[in-house]
Amino acid sequence: MQKSQPSEKIFSFQLPRKILFGVNASETAGAEAKALGGKEALLVTDGNMAKLGVSGKIVESLVKEGLKVDVFDAVDPEPVIEVAETVAKAARKKRYDVVVGVGGGSVLDMAKVAAVAPTNPGPMRSYVGVDLVKEPGVPTVLLPTTSGTGSEVTNVAVVTIAEDEMKTSIISPHIFGHVAIVDPTLTYSLPPRLTASTGLDALSHALEALISVNSSPITDALAYQAVNLIYRNLLNAQRKGDPESRYGMSLGSLIAGMAFGSAGVCLGHAAAYSFAVSHRVTHGVSCGLVLPYIFRFSAPAIPQKLPEAARAMNFDVESLKSGEMGDAISDAILKLMGELQVPRRLRDVGITREDLPKLADKLFSLKRLILRCPRQPSKEDALKLFEEMW
User: Fold this and answer.
1) Do β-strands 156-161 and 166-171 pair in parallel, antiparallel, or remain unpaired?
2) H helices of 147-216, where?
């Protein structure tokens, strides 16, 4: 019998004001921006989206509705804080009344930075942390082109502090977008390698949302559904890229974003952040690589959730003993990663065994994330985890 949540606990759940999902939903971008009062728009994207013509179609939609559009297309993958400062400078040049983001998670995060920059003066570095953005920004319309980060529905903008070799975030309710438009067709051009890594990122969001001490019945329900959609569709999305699997991945990523946007991620992202910057491993690859190991470690602390998580991954739950479910889920993730041909061990991304003590120490600098884990690791646990990953 599933253990009920304590009745005295108050849950918090937040989302953007509006979410549009469906094939060709991106065609409504201009109408949605206009409905927000948009006349002068800043469109934030990257060079690849411009080259593929994806951002150009969104510009056309905006212009069709009578908006004037300036384009900022200099967002790098895994942006450093200096990119955030450049985006902020561009956003402060004119009195834009709407910001539109078109791209992967890095682009959407920088679009959110652009939205709050005009109303929150000074360097964006000063807003890194929790609830330091004090004023609402201009309205935003966010359109993801990957099925991974869920940034279109979260209150987080991730930046890299290169000198500290660390990823960190600007976190504030004012960072939430106003309208999220999730159109599976925008992911059709995503290559297999990025389909796999961003999809594993989405799976990590769903499973870490289940693990988090800030989870709730609302986020759990979303997380189970996201796990099911991602687990069923990711391999086909990578190998075939067919419309049905792309649809499932877009929906799964969106729902996973809704789950972790309120529950938060925990030990997995902390472990990934400990080596992603220093060893130049992309966010999706690093979060995917650690996922089976941190789930195996955390599973004993969430026994009541394991049967439903196993069902979401199509296990015959009746044939598994309760103590076997965490291992079975972890093994299934490792098997999926093998089929996706993504790194499953730290040695596969150039990390040496001599690096492991440093990574274990660095893990504990990410207290905000670790404190969300119901099973708190000791220093001995951390080193053992990294040795298992190696």
Assistant:
1) antiparallel
2) 192-211
From residue 199, how far is each of 74, 126, 318 by CA, in Å? 24, 32, 28
Grouping H, G, I as helix, E, B as strand and the rest as coil, residue 344 is: coil
pLDDT in tens, 48-76: 998 899 999 999 999 999 999 999 999 99
At 95, list the tokens: 């009195």
Distance of CA 51 to CAs 43, 54, 204, 246, Å? Answer: 15, 8, 30, 21
Report the CATH number of the 192-389 domain.
1.20.1090.10
Point out which residues pair with 140 in neighbouring strands.
99
- Yes or no: is domain 18-187 CATH 3.40.50.1970? yes
Give the start-to-end residue ranges of the domains of the chain: 18-187, 192-389
pTM for the predicted model, two decimal places: 0.94
pLDDT score of 5: 52
Q: How many CB atoms lie within 10 A of CB 122?
A: 9
Q: What is d(CA 101, CA 174) in angstroms, rounded to the nearest whole number?
A: 16
